[in-house]
């Protein structure tokens, strides 16, 4: 299978995502990479991120950690939305609610 051959030669990555699989592939490239990584299929050229990439990834992790630490627990969230005073925001599905850049 060309996908497995590509993986063994290059390791997991998304650079050739649009050429390796049909865009309607059931699992997507990430799904196949997860399977191959989970099965510990060897590959020749492991990717080594640069210092800048490691720093960026660290910032992303810290941002998610900060959001998680400030999150509302399940019990508190259910109490809130079950309150008669609670109203769902009218813009819930029309606005971007999360910041996507770090």
Describe this structure in words.
The mean pLDDT is 87. The chain has 102 residues and is mainly α. The protein has 5 helices and no strands. Among the domains are: 37 residues, no CATH class; 32 residues, no CATH class.
What is the structure about, briefly put?
Helices cover 51% and strands 0% of the residues. The chain contains 5 helices and no strands.
**Low-pLDDT sequence parts:** none
C-alpha Rg, in Å? Answer: 20 Å
Q: Quick one: overall form? A: elongated
Order of helices and strands: HHHHH
Topology:
Elements (H helix, E strand, L loop, with lengths): L1 H9 L6 H4 L7 H11 L12 H19 L4 H9 L20
Q: Which structural traits does this protein have?
A:
5 helices; 102 residues; mainly alpha
